[in-house]
Amino acid sequence: xxxxxxxxxxxxxxxxxxxxxxxxxxxxxxxxxxxxxxxxxxxxxxxxxxxxxxxxxxxxxxxxxxxxxxxxxxxxxxxxxxxxxxxxxxxxxxxxxxxxxxxxxxxxxxxxxxxxxxxxxxxxxxxxxxxxxxxxxxxxxxxxxxxxxxxxxxxxxxxxxxxxxxxxxxxxxxxxxxxxxxxxxxxxxxxxxxxxxxxxxxxxxxxxxxxxxxxxxxxxxxxxxxxxxxxxxxxxxxxxxxxxxxxxxxxxxxxxxxxxxxxxxxxxxxxxxxxxxxxxxxxxxxxxxxxxxxxxxxxxxxxxxxxxxxxxxxxxxxxxxxx
Length: 323
Hints:
Shape: elongated
CATH class of the largest domain: Alpha Beta
Helix content: 25-40%
């Protein structure tokens, strides 16, 4: 059996988990095994129909009085115990902060190696993996072999696809936890006060860098003209104090995967490109024709962003909509 960790928000499965289920289903089919899932939280049983559509036969919902909120060691312990009870060949988790942390604890408890940022698996005597390294700038081919193979799935690298299955059977699972498993717990969540579409979910992202000279007003106006658009920035702009860290796109910031990324006044450092490599198209606006971002873009405008952005806003406004 293959076990997939599924993250959800009040019964709505995260996109990264749908990608994870897609890869996990492929691994299960190659191994000739069934696919099960494990999910935490009081609304976990509400995702049975969704995960069933992605090939999950059984949804194990964790039921424990002390697990009202996220506790990484306890999550790891619960995943291990569920895997041992069901005879799991592999545990596959989303490559999110929580997914990676949970699986790291599981790997420690099982005393096995965990492979992170996986994009493809070929199942044989061993698992032949394709995985990302250095923020996606290096592709590695590796072999994983353990009694229970543990891996996380690189976000935004796999197209989620349904298999048309029936709703998964729900099975309540109660792990045996001790005080040590609960020494680190989520106590509160501080919501960002920034309104609008989250960068990771935006269809269009407009990013500004050092070339803005701290003036993001034209880019803000452009974002307002485009449906489902979000404003981001480079690390340089964040370091200058021009934008909050929540806006940062890059290896140490947000990873984006929009239909189009409009990069204005951004040089295109490797760390930034790691964050936007999931974009289907890149439009670069820069006064330097030799800037790295120009060389990597699908389209480029060699000009001052403070002239180009207002012109784009004016054109969109004259059309009455954004194409």
